[in-house]
Design brief:
Blueprint lengths: L4 H11 L9 E6 L16 H14 L1 E2 L2 H10 L6 E8 L2 H14 L3 E5 L11 H11 L4 E3 L7 E3 L3 H16 L3 H15 L11 H8 L3 E5 L12 H19 L5 E3 L11 H9 L4 E3 L25 H13 L3
Parallel strand pairs: 1-3, 2-3, 3-4, 4-7, 8-9
Antiparallel strand pairs: 5-6
């Protein structure tokens, strides 16, 4: 990849709009980093994959802290091939596996933390489902008594499909129905499904010493569109205040849980994020952000290509798209 770097930089300069004010910003978006491949989490990068991706970003792109990048997107002073790195949810592997790689390369990043897991070290609901599948000794998880289905677990393919089906179903449940489902999984497992996967307050403060910025991602990671307005605002505002107490700094950037505009959040939530005091917010729409995008609905995505050259070319294509 090192020998291709000058080529990628030249191609990037040629593709990017010549006028600095029309340049785009690619905001790449990770969740957790894995120690080794996991068939139930095959969209998440291993530490080896993350390492080559960071090598590539460090050698071919201009990686900026997200807060600075948003300011420069607004005032038209972005450099060519501008990228910002983000992580959602606040997984502990950001501290354990990603931080040493980012530090070695001097790369800044932002972590959007779901604040409700910091003190009690509880797991995100999607990880409770995964762990229930992983640890089950039964041939299926039967949730018919709470109005759901039977989820078969005969082999890895079934485990993966069942975890995905339960996750998709759980995602759009009300918070109460989601809790009922998680309690039932916990009962069926007959052992504690919590794994201490999320960042602690000390880890968050340590990340901040190394160019890692902390952003808001609500308290409990609900689908905002499924909540009444009071509750949605409390999730947005309380998460911000909680993180400000932990970090001792203003928390200015927000990522919508799940992030699909019109499905997971709507215009009401955009207004709530603004009135809670955030200065920019991020969706999960594919592509690069342009100066014409709404500052509270900036797209964020990660090339899904497994080979470095294709990964770089997809980023360049997004950066070169016409406004
Ligand atoms: Zn999230």
């Amino acid at each position: 990849m090192r020998c291709a770097a000058p080529l990628i930089r030249t191609a990037g300069n040629a593709l990017a709009p010549a006028e600095a004010g029309k340049r785009r910003l690619c905001i790449v978006n990770y969740h957790r980093i894995l120690h080794k491949p996991d068939p139930l989490l095959d969209s998440e990068p291993t530490v080896d994959t993350f390492r080559w991706q960071m090598d590539l970003l460090a050698s071919c792109f201009n990686v900026l802290p997200l807060g600075e990048a948003i300011t420069r997107l607004g005032n038209g002073s972005l450099p060519p091939r501008a990228v910002a790195i983000t992580f959602d949810d606040g997984y502990r592997t950001v501290h354990e596996l990603a931080l040493p790689i980012l530090r070695e390369r001097g790369l800044p990043a932002t972590v959007f933390v779901t604040s409700g897991h910091i003190e009690d070290e509880s797991s995100m609901w999607n990880d409770v489902i995964l762990e229930a599948v992983r640890r089950s000794h039964d041939s299926a998880i039967d949730l018919r008594d709470i109005g759901m289905d039977v989820y078969p677990l005969a082999d890895t393919a079934q485990c993966k499909a069942s975890a995905a089906a339960m996750t998709e179903r759980c995602k759009y449940l009300t918070p109460e129905a989601r809790d009922t489902m998680l309690r039932r999984l916990q009962q069926l497992a007959r052992e504690d499904l919590t794994q201490h996967l999320m960042l602690t307050a000390d880890m968050i403060r340590e990340l901040m010493q190394y160019r890692i910025e902390i952003g808001g991602h609500t308290v409990t990671h609900p689908i905002l569109a499924r909540l009444d307005d009071d509750r949605a605002f409390r999730e947005i505002a309380d998460g911000k205040h909680h993180l400000e107490r932990v970090t001792g700094r203003p928390v200015e950037l927000f990522a919508y849980p799940n992030g699909k505009q019109g499905v997971d959040f709507d215009q009401r939530h955009v207004e709530m994020v603004k009135s809670a005091g955030y200065r920019a917010a991020f969706t999960t729409a594919v592509g690069a952000a342009s100066g014409r995008d709404h500052p509270y609905q900036l797209p964020r995505s990660r090339p899904w290509d497994a080979r470095p050259l294709m990964f770089a070319l997809r980023l360049l294509r997004w950066l070169g798209e016409e406004q």
